[in-house]
From TrEMBL, chain A:
Stored SUPFAM superfamilies: P-loop containing nucleoside triphosphate hydrolases
Pfam families per UniProt: Ras (PF00071)
Gene: RAB6B
Top-level taxonomy: Eukaryota, Fungi, Fungi incertae sedis, Chytridiomycota, Chytridiomycota incertae sedis
Entry keyword GTP-binding: yes
Gene source species: Boothiomyces macroporosus
Name this protein carries in UniProt: Ras- protein Rab-6B
Keywords, ordered alphabetically: GTP-binding, Nucleotide-binding
CDD domains (UniProt xref): Rab6
Domain of life, source organism: Eukaryota
GO MF: GTP binding; GTPase activity
From TrEMBL, chain B:
SMART domains according to UniProt: TBC (SM00164)
Keywords, alphabetical: GTPase activation
Any one Gene Ontology molecular-function term assigned to this protein's record: GTPase activator activity
Protein name: Rab-GAP TBC domain-containing protein
Keyword presence, Flavoprotein: no
Pfam families: RabGAP-TBC
Gene3D superfamilies in UniProt: putative rabgap domain of human tbc1 domain family member 14 like domains, Ypt/Rab-GAP domain of gyp1p, domain 3
Matching InterPro entries: Rab-GAP-TBC_dom (IPR000195), Rab-GAP_TBC_sf (IPR035969)
PANTHER family per the UniProt record, alphabetical: SMALL G PROTEIN SIGNALING MODULATOR 2-RELATED, TBC1 DOMAIN FAMILY MEMBER GTPASE-ACTIVATING PROTEIN
Organism: Boothiomyces macroporosus
Domain named Rab-GAP TBC: residues: 60-234
Length: 198, 316
């Protein structure tokens, strides 16, 4: 194990307050949902480890606070990100209208090469929907981004979304590569095993 | 007539309470669909009443501006109120994911919202406005005091002390992180050097500690003990910086031995949340403080009275 290839992909989650950024990460990491998650202060960091054949993939997830006030702190941490997941809440129109500016900001900071994924979250609350999937799709096409709708609450599409991101990156084969044997502390490791093997 | 800011807060508090029905009946998510007369009723009532309440013209709020600001603050505050100290028995568990509905079913959450709304609405130009983290500081006061108006005044007092944490430009937090950086250099040069080597000299991992005063790092009651210690100002008004130092010192060997970059440091530090012992941290912080005082004495820069950390560190 100790000398295997390790690929690290830095991924940042952005979007307005309370759209479900932390909940999406929690669903991916621990497969659970808790609607009393505290507001993220500043920035948080998680690592999801996945295995693709004999390659270990570390998806480094940067969870950010949605409030504009904290935006000045974000750039330091999102530089060199490979993926930006911009999340909006399908029941909150204004969180959708701000997707544009989040995408613009992240491209300014990380360059045009960053893979952008636009996520409409909270599809479990379809009866209060204010943003239609077609609108998300249209915006994503316009912004040259991938689009998906998810529910961190029910888990719908969450694993699939992250898996798609990892597979796309892996297939591009331009990873930041490193061989590492150093000790990891407090990292949660989960195998997606055979379902993700290619 | 000149009014003290706190007088205005009291009046605004009364104003908001008297008019709470007006705001609670207002669905801010759908204000665009309001009829013209409903819109007019809302928009017009706010500044007129505020004009009566606030004689100081500097606090005059333009009708549309006030509406936008109130709605935005209300939206953000409600989103945060329903996810603050939710595991504390003070707030009953309610089965709904809609913030407004949850608050309407839980009067205590309503109190927290009203205190935060009153507070954030009492400043001109919405500065600082509602900033995430404020609910973390306000909720414990309400839990302990229970009375709305007293909790409000305590919160206003606390925010007066901690207002630099919520400045728009982040200068207040930067100032405190700079103190921590200088203190680390004096107290533990090898650790300071290590943090420098791994590019973590911005000490961003301590941002949350300072912004919400360790509220996310310890269980509720332990945090209260830390707050009591800090607020007593017994050793220094910046004793919380020594608590930050202590957390770094407690884990210095892991940091020096194993951490290789800023990302890992942030992950490691945030991973300590709710795994630390506040009593041990407080005891060590006191030790470190007394050690620091000795160093100051040896350097000849110890002043009389309570230690002014910024001044003392400036002379190193």
């Amino acid at each position: 194990m100790s000398l295997q290839n390790i690929l690290k992909y830095k991924t940042v989650l952005l979007g307005e307050i309370s759209v479900g950024k932390t909940s999406l990460i929690s669903r991916l990491m621990y497969d659970k949902f808790d609607d009393s998650y505290q507001a993220t202060i500043g920035i948080d960091h998680f690592i999801k480890t996945m295995y693709l054949g004999d390659t270990t993939i570390k998806l480094q997830l940067w969870d950010t606070a949605g409030q504009e006030r904290f935006r000045s702190l974000i750039p330091t941490f999102i530089r060199n990100s490979r993926v930006a997941i911009v999340v909006y809440d399908i029941t909150n129109r204004s969180s959708f209208t701000k997707v544009n500016s989040w995408v613009r900001d992240v491209r300014n900071e990380c360059g045009e090469d960053i893979k952008v994924v636009i996520i409409g979250n909270k599809v479990d609350m379809d009866s209060s929907r204010k943003v239609w999937p077609e609108e998300g799709e249209e915006l994503a096409t316009k912004l040259n981004a991938i689009f998906m709708e998810t529910s961190a609450k029910t888990g719908s599409n969450v694993q699939a979304m992250f898996k798609k991101i990892v597979m796309d990156l892996y297939e591009q084969k331009v990873p930041v590569k490193e061989t590492s044997t150093h000790l990891n502390i407090n990292y949660v490791t989960t195998s997606v095993g055979s379902s993700c093997a290619c | 007539m000149h009014k003290e800011p706190l007088d205005m807060l009291q009046q605004l508090s009364d104003f908001y309470r008297d008019n709470s029905e007006l705001y609670s009946s207002f669905d801010i998510n759908s204000y665009e669909q309001l009829t013209a007369s409903e819109m007019a009723q809302f928009v017009l009532s706010v500044p007129q009443k505020l004009d009566v309440v606030l004689e100081d013209k500097s606090l005059e709020i333009t009708p549309l501006g006030s509406f936008e600001i109130w709605s935005e603050n209300l939206f953000r505050i409600e989103k945060d109120v329903v996810r603050t100290d939710r595991n504390h028995s003070f707030y009953p568990s309610i089965e709904t994911s809609d913030p407004s509905e949850m608050i309407s079913k839980c009067p205590k959450m309503g109190l927290l919202r009203d205190i935060l709304m009153t507070f954030t609405s009492s400043f001109p130009n919405n500065e600082p406005g509602f900033v995430q983290g404020m609910a973390d500081l306000c909720s414990p006061l309400l839990i302990h005091i229970e009375d709305e108006s007293e909790a409000f005044w305590c919160f206003a007092g606390l925010m007066n002390k901690k207002k630099e944490n919520f400045n728009n430009d982040g200068a207040g937090i930067k100032r405190q992180l700079e103190l921590l950086r200088k203190l680390l250099k004096v107290m533990d040069l090898p650790l300071y050097t290590k943090l420098n080597e791994i590019g973590s000299m911005n000490l961003f991992c301590a941002f949350r500690w300072i912004l919400v005063l360790f509220k996310r790092e310890f269980p509720f009651e332990q945090t209260m003990k830390l707050w009591d210690t800090c607020f007593s100002n017994y050793y220094s008004t910046d004793f919380h910086i020594f608590i930050c130092l202590t957390i770094f010192e407690t884990h210095r060997n892991e940091i020096i031995g194993h951490i290789e970059d800023t990302d890992e440091l942030l992950c490691f530090i945030h991973g300590l949340s709710n795994k630390m012992d506040s009593d041990a941290i407080l005891a060590s912080a006191e030790d470190l403080f007394l050690q620091f005082k000795k160093i100051c004495k040896a350097q000849g820069c110890l002043q009389e009275g309570r230690l002014d950390l910024e001044k003392v560190l400036g002379s190193f």
